[in-house]
Amino acid sequence: MIGELRSRSPDGPIEERWSEHKFNLRLVNPGNRRRFSLIVVGTGLAGATAAASLGEMGYKVSVFTYHDSPRRAHSIAAQGGINASKNYKNDGDSTFRLFYDTIKGGDYRSRESNVYRLAEVSSNIIDQCVAAGVPFAREYGGMLDNRSFGGAQVSRTFYARGQTGQQLLLGAYSALMRQVASGSVELHTRTEMLDLVVIDGKAAGIVTRNLLTGEIRAYSAHAVILATGGYSNVYFLSTNARMCNVTATWRAHRRGALFANPCFTQIHPTCIPPSEDFQSKLTLMSESLRNDGRIWVPRSHDDERPPGEIPEIERDYYLETKYRSFGNLVPRDVASRNAKSVVDEGRGVGPRRNGVYLDFSDAIARDSTEAVSAKYGNLFDMYERITGEDPYKVPMRIYPAVHYTMGGLWVDYNLMSNLPGLFVLGEANFSDHGANRLGASALMQGLADGYFVIPATISDYLADLLGTQPTPPTHAAFGESVAETEDRTARLLANKGSLTVDHFHRELGKIVWDCCGMARNAAGLKKALSDIPALNEEFHSNVLVPGSAVTLNQALERAGRVADLFELAELMMRDALVREESCGGHFREEHQDAEGEALRDDENFSHIAAWEWAGNRNAPVFHREQLEFETVAPTKRSYK
Amino acid sequence: MSAGAEPLSLRLKVWRQDDEGSDGRFEKYDLAGISADASFLEMLDLLNERLTLEGKEPVAFESDCREGICGTCGLMINGRAHGPQQGTATCQLHMRQFSDSAEITVEPWRAAAFPVIRDLVVDRSAFDEIITAGGYISINTGAAPDANLTPIPKEAAEASFDAAACIGCGACVAACPNSAAQLFTSAKLQHLNLLPQGQAERWARTEAMVEKMEEYFGSCTNHGECSVACPKDISIDFIAWTNRDYIKAKFNNRKLLGGR
After folding, report:
1. Do A142 and B151 touch (CB under 8 A)?
2. CB–CB of B37 and A276 under 8 A?
3. Phi/psi-derived region of residue A302, left when phi > 0, alpha when psi is between -120 and 50, beta in every other case
4. Which residues in chain A are contacts of B143 at CB distance < 8 A?
5. What does the pLDDT look like over A313-333, one tens digit per residue?
6. ipTM more than 0.95?
7. What residue ranges define each of the domains in chain A, with the CATH number in brackets?
8. Which of A354, A479, A605, B184 has the greatest number of C-beta atoms within 10 Å?
9. What number of H helices and E strands is found in chain B?
10. Nearest chain A CA: its distance from B259 CA (Å)
11. Which domains does chain B show, CATH number per domain?
12. Smallest Cβ distance to A276: which of B35, B123, B160?
């Protein structure tokens, strides 16, 4: 059993907590660091920067990715930008304001200490990235440019055209490869983590499968760092890359790590609506488009006219009318829910009536086509390639899609899970975004965790282990885990059922989207709690996985990932069911005010829900970490 | 608006190969009812669903983000890297670019430095080797000065960005008759060489990366196919800049090393 959850958040004035805490942490001196071996799983922003930074410090690091190259991790697809409270625009920004906006944006469901630290290191991140050669947008004087993003009234977002994620990841990747060249980091590509090995309650290593040869083997280390991203693909259709999955964190959860707030998922308001039945993924259009695009739908239902023929008076710019001060720049959850409600009313646009317009005609008239193209040209091109429509002439059609998961493995202030020696960074942990993440904050958090937090905190755990060797992979616990992993793989292949992995994944996604998407209610969640296990059972008895265990076998890889997504989906429903309030991305239909806005319940739900795995046949055990708000008083979020 | 266009019937000729050591072969598949709004990879997904249900092995091909930025996907489609649409990665190519009853040949990247792993999947780790040789600025975490300390003229930042847009897909190599990697290497080099931050290591970086490239890839003879195939429209001018940098690097490095 797990005792009280200790966040190890420091006390004292909020602006001094991180410095004070760092001072109190135990250190490992530079000469001793080479005596510690560390495993990092994942090479996105958090994983690559953690591996590179720890390698620079002198630790012996092994880093694992299932991609062919670290540069392909899904951080690469982030478009819009990264926040930092540099106040380069002189518009009143500060560390405190970024902290405040992030806490408020997260609907008061995150830890003050963590969020303040995130805001505090945000400036260092930009410095580090620029020094590493990230070509952020600049003004003519050569200084860095900024733009504003949803949920903020200042310009604090640094960006690199529409591909900020790729440019930041290339910076992180180059730092990583520099350490690979120096020999401090050993890189394992096309290697997927399939289990966590825990000995005497502590993380001791991992079990992996080589995706080319099928070899399953164990690696041990003094500590294991997971930076394996989020689980949006539980919905099948999401903006995540095809390979994104929950397996690494889910396997750690099954070995004892608590999974926190799994129902906190983010639906991004500006994605391209699905156009056909066999769509494999959804594509995001950067939120930055909301700076210049105006969102509207026809006032009347089932309006068949092309957008250009609908006169101004018959258009409903519903965000601008309803939220006067933020308008089209309301946070993501608010923008998404409003799009859903106009589409549900029958005022959706496009051939499937499944979108709303994002119209640039005013911006083009005001600033010229060239100016709009300079800002968003690559996004407009991408939209045209996908839809066959020219957004310079016809308004874009957008609709919300699943984009990010705030939930993840529970970690304390040091980013360590409840299992000593297991650290979790980036989207894979639950830590900084509460119930809703603000735009341009994911890149910030991944880099904060990897560049600045883990290099400072990990020594406090390692200090005790000085002079010890990691448990060798010959230990029985490693052997058992390897055998279990081999068995799981063999059973999937031996099944020879009659339906494909994608079939089951798609069906699972429909349930999760319908019951735990933009709006949730008790009846739907209860239904899902019986539908998901039934479908899961059918999956395990009737899935058809072709091919062999000892070659590249993409169907087998997917089958293992989907099996874990099934179990996670069930936990999401439970979490959503017991959270009897609406907050951030979690909108319970039973809890809304007369105007349809979310009703939070601070008295009963100002906590983190952290779930403990209790075996295949038992319901998971609920643990609570109470949230304390000493610096900002939770209020009702208002963007009006 | 293309939505609602008639579904397509297609004949596919797909390269199948069990592993690097085996002989490959083309196999033909007829597919009907493909939506014009489907992406090329979704069409292959459908083929794989069918093959699986028929008890056959699906076609191995790689993709991840499916929005043209991770560089994982990459197929020779009718002899063109990433297919017929300029400036478009395979995952962003949509079936509306093909006519009904088209015959489409699908092959992996063909280059000695990119051995075939299975079917349409190749090993591009030689690219990572080039980066490891020097594709970075040596700055440890925590050692950075304020980001606005050094103004970078917008033109320089933009030029650097044009190079940095490379997604490392390998189309340039696949399209080149010599299987040269000059466009990839030059894009990576000029991204850093054009920035003030990249100057300290400019000459060492240039020499190391170019020479690592030459261990794996063919020589550039200015065909220009690379730039045409590039899904990010990276200009061949970067190759010229790199050639200039390389010659300078040879002199400068010799001078720095005391004329050895």
Report:
1. yes
2. yes
3. left
4. 131
5. 999 999 999 999 889 988 888
6. yes
7. 268-402 (3.90.700.10), 484-605 (1.20.58.100)
8. B184
9. 8, 7
10. 26
11. 8-107 (3.10.20.30), 124-256 (1.10.1060.10)
12. B35
